Amino acid sequence: MVKLAIDAMGGDLAPQEIVKGCNLAIGKHEDLELILFGDETQINQYLVPNPRVTVVHAPKKIDMGEEDPIKEIRNNRDTSLVMAFQAIKDKEADGVVTAGPTQAVIVAAHLIIRRIKGMKRVALAPELPFIGGKSRILLDVGANLELRSEHIVQFAQFASIYLRETRNIKEPLVGLLNIGTEKGKGREVDIAAYNLLKEDPYINFYGNVEPKELFTTPCDILVTDGFTGNMVMKTSEGAAKALGQTLKEEISKTLWGKIGYLFMRKNLASFKERLNPDRIGGANLFGVDGIVVKAHGSSEAYAFYNAIIQAKKSVEGQIIDKMKAVLSEVISDEEL
Amino acid sequence: MVKLAIDAMGGDLAPQEIVKGCNLAIGKHEDLELILFGDETQINQYLVPNPRVTVVHAPKKIDMGEEDPIKEIRNNRDTSLVMAFQAIKDKEADGVVTAGPTQAVIVAAHLIIRRIKGMKRVALAPELPFIGGKSRILLDVGANLELRSEHIVQFAQFASIYLRETRNIKEPLVGLLNIGTEKGKGREVDIAAYNLLKEDPYINFYGNVEPKELFTTPCDILVTDGFTGNMVMKTSEGAAKALGQTLKEEISKTLWGKIGYLFMRKNLASFKERLNPDRIGGANLFGVDGIVVKAHGSSEAYAFYNAIIQAKKSVEGQIIDKMKAVLSEVISDEEL
Questions:
Q1: Which of A16, A48, A67, A214 is the most buried (most CB within 10 A)?
Q2: Tell me, what's the pLDDT at B255?
């Protein structure tokens, strides 16, 4: 049985879509228990009662536009987000799923759950849209602005364990995002990270990957610092949005275009669906001592359902224990 | 009369497409003179003779895959690229256009033409594809890996002058690429650049721009360090390529899709054309004491023609003299 804490009030469409996502998950998975934190009255409006679901009343919620998340989280222990994270700390649940504001999630994870001993940083690790034939994990996308090479290596180890245990990818291929493919390219941090990744026994290293290969590289995992990862992710979002818009404009310019559209409506819908971030659960937060999945702020029920299943698989795969084993080996190696 | 030096041997399709681009430019613009550097016999195969075109024989060319451009340029003064750059230094031409390897262009510009006095760094400044209703300049995309905030400000000043003088945009709007729109976001360099850009009398500063707005922001100019700019540019290339491929796959999946394609073939061709980098001339190299335009390595005649016209406009707009005026004012301000 996997037990997850749910921040029922986080996200633009909370609590309705969040609770519906929970209903879906509970209906489909008999080995799942959920604890929903949030406004009891509102939650009960949408909740399908089930003995495997508990509701814990949280009188407050974190505002999506919160500008000072550290203060907010320190001073408001009775928000749904903080209470859900506290459940992990108190070992009442194995993982937490929230569609709350990213910065608040990162801060809450740090302050409440805390980092795994030996992990120097935490990383936010979303999955790229499923185009180019496979999905890929990109990290860090903004939990840290600047990183040292050894942080990047830990992230690559963690993401490798994640894919091995939750997706059955035996030896996930890791690429380092860089401005060129040759060894020796990039800033000092990139060159140092290249050398460490290449030597690391826990990592199947591919080499440098230019972001023009973001959706075509054979790599399963792409690592970089948080500033760069954030820029890369947002650029691909921006390009997809602009291209979609441009395509629409061009099609509606002529009558033939509009007629053509009628024929290929289903094809274009399927195209759009492949770019849909809701197909993917959410971003993992790697590095704290508990499973944390951050669903999209705009998550509807199905997206949130996917995020729940993602957290469930991470718990079942015992990815944190496996990362701890790597960390303790690396640390004892260093002590020799 | 504008006089430009042309590296006739640079680029994947040189010299044929390069020379054809020159023929086009000479045919259309009576106030243009060109000096072509390269293999005389090969050039003359494609050249339409004209009194405004001179050919200067260069016995060698720089290899596209050259791994040590500094050594290559120092030791091979008789390559078409080096000789074309030397013509600027010797004041025989007002600007140079080349489709040669980017790193070699940057190195040659530094070693042969040299930086404008007071310019701390040079920037490679391409134009983004014309989607989202307007084109935009992005810089730096890789002439430098790391930059200080004052370098970014100089780039913004230079690009502002360029758009004002060559495109008649009165007050080009400058955005700083960043992970968030609020003031105070980003790394130290970004925060410092924000503050300087805001106060600069030569810059019409918009504020931070997240790359998800890359093709929708009202900004004409987007500034960042060379590593980040390179990643952003390559990500948008990669996303465009992958989306085009995915669209194709989806359309060819069903018969209706294929029929629809027949109707909207022209619309899709026009869509593709809007993403075509050949519509744009090439990247400007800002900061050296001469006009340098780097055309795409894969430039065909029309793309190279556009790059020539771009260089011509920069010469006519006297952008270097105008930047020198800004630099001397800023420098004397600092001396007060």
A1: A214
A2: 85
Q: What are residue B36's DSSP bridge partners?
A: B6, B55
CB contact under 8 A, A210 and B240: no
- The closest of B5, B3, B4, B18 to B296, measured between CA atoms, is B18
Q: How many CB pairs under 8 A join A and B?
A: 193
Integer Cα distance of B234 and B102 in angstroms: 14
Tell me if A234 and B227 make a contact (CB, 8 A cut-off).
no
- CATH superfamily label, A120-279: Isopropylmalate Dehydrogenase (3.40.718.10)
* Residue of A213, A234, A268 lying closest to B238 (CB–CB): A213
pLDDT reported for residue A330: 77
- Return the closest-CA partner of residue A84 out of A180, A152, A5: A5
| pLDDT at position B237 | 87
Any idea what DSSP says for residue B38? Answer: E
The closest of A201, A223, A72 to A152, measured between CA atoms, is: A223
Where does CATH 3.40.718.10 sit in chain B?
A: 1-117+287-317, 120-281
Rounded distance between C-alpha atoms, residue A75 and residue A325, angstroms: 35
Q: Is A332 exposed, middle or buried (0-12, 13-18, 19+ CB in 10 A)?
A: exposed
pLDDT for res A243: 83
Distance from CA of B230 to the nearest CA of A (A): 6
Query: Which of B103, B179, B252 to mutate to probe the A interface, most A CBs <10 Å?
Result: B179
Side chain identity, residue B153: V
Strand pairing report for B123-125 and B282-286? antiparallel
Kindly state the DSSP code that residue B109 receives in the 8-state scheme: I
The residue-averaged pLDDT of A276-304 equals 89
CATH code, residues B1-117+287-317: 3.40.718.10
Tell me which fold the domain A1-119+287-317 belongs to.
Answer: Isopropylmalate Dehydrogenase (3.40.718)
Q: What is the distance between the alpha carbons of residues A21 and B245, in angstroms, rounded to a whole number?
A: 32
Q: Which of B176, B246, B273, B275 to mutate to test the interface with A (most CBs of A within 10 A)?
A: B246
Q: Average model confidence (pLDDT) for chain B? A: 92
Give me the pLDDT at residue A208, please.
98
Give how far Cα A113 sits from Cα of A57, A94, B102, B225, Å: 20, 11, 48, 35
Where in chain A are all domains bearing CATH 3.40.718.10? 1-119+287-317, 120-279
Asked if the Cβ–Cβ distance from A212 to B241 is below 8 Å, we say yes
pTM of this structure: 0.91
Chain B residue with the nearest C-alpha to that of A216: B242
Q: Does residue B336 carry a pLDDT above 60? A: no
Q: From the CB of residue A75, how many other CB atoms can be counted at a distance below 10 Å?
A: 10
Asked whether the beta carbons of residue B145 and residue A210 sit closer than 8 angstroms, the reply is: no
Instruction: Name the helix (H) or strand (E) containing A36.
Output: strand A32-38
User: Do the chains contact at A256 and B263, CB–CB below 8 Å?
Assistant: yes
Measure CB to CB from residue B247 to each of A145, A238, A271 and give the nearest one. Answer: A271
- Whether the predicted pLDDT of A60 surpasses 80: yes
DSSP string for residues in A70-119: HHHHHH-TTBHHHHHHHHHHTTS-SEEEE-S-HHHHHHHIIIII-BPTT-
